[in-house]
Amino acid sequence: MAENKEKRLNIKDLNDVVTVDELASFMGATPRMVTNMVMAGDIKSFTFGRKRLFLKQDILSMIGYSEEKEAVAETEKSRAESQSGTIKSIPPLRHRPSFTEMGV
């Protein structure tokens, strides 16, 4: 039995206007759960014909996403990756004379 698991959408994958299915994929929820949240007034939405749509900016503000916070997090992540990938130089060892060199 092979399950058809779709990859969850991330913020960069979202269009400016998002459908119920796309929002459900982004949130890791079902379309029914998204619809219930709309009916409860938890998510701003609008209809276009018979389609319920969401603005990306409303979704991001609902989850408390900030592009500035994301940019800082990306910078810190890349800095940590670059530092962990480099090997710090080890100072050279001084030559220790052997017993024969010391005349023992």
Low-confidence stretches: none
The CATH class of the domain at 1-64: Mainly Alpha
CATH fold-type name of the domain at 1-64: Multidrug-efflux Transporter Regulator, Chain: A, Domain 2
Question: Average pLDDT value?
Answer: 80
CATH architect. name of the domain at 1-64: Orthogonal Bundle
Number of strands: 3
Output the helix-strand order.
Answer: EHHEEHHH
Shape: rod-shaped
Helix percent reads 40-55%
Computed Rg = 27 Å
Give the helix tally: 5
Spatial gap, N to C terminus: 77 Å
For the biggest β-sheet, the strand order reads 1-3-2
**Binned strand content:** 5-15%
Largest sheet: 3 strands, antiparallel
Structural class: mainly alpha
Quick gist of this model?
46% of the residues lie in helices and 11% in strands. By secondary structure, it is mainly α.
Molecular structure report:
The protein has 104 residues and is mainly α. It has a domain at 1-64: Multidrug-efflux Transporter Regulator, Chain: A, Domain 2, CATH 1.10.1660. The chain has five helices and three strands. A three-stranded antiparallel beta sheet has the order 1-3-2. The termini are far apart. The model has no long low-confidence stretch (mean pLDDT 80).
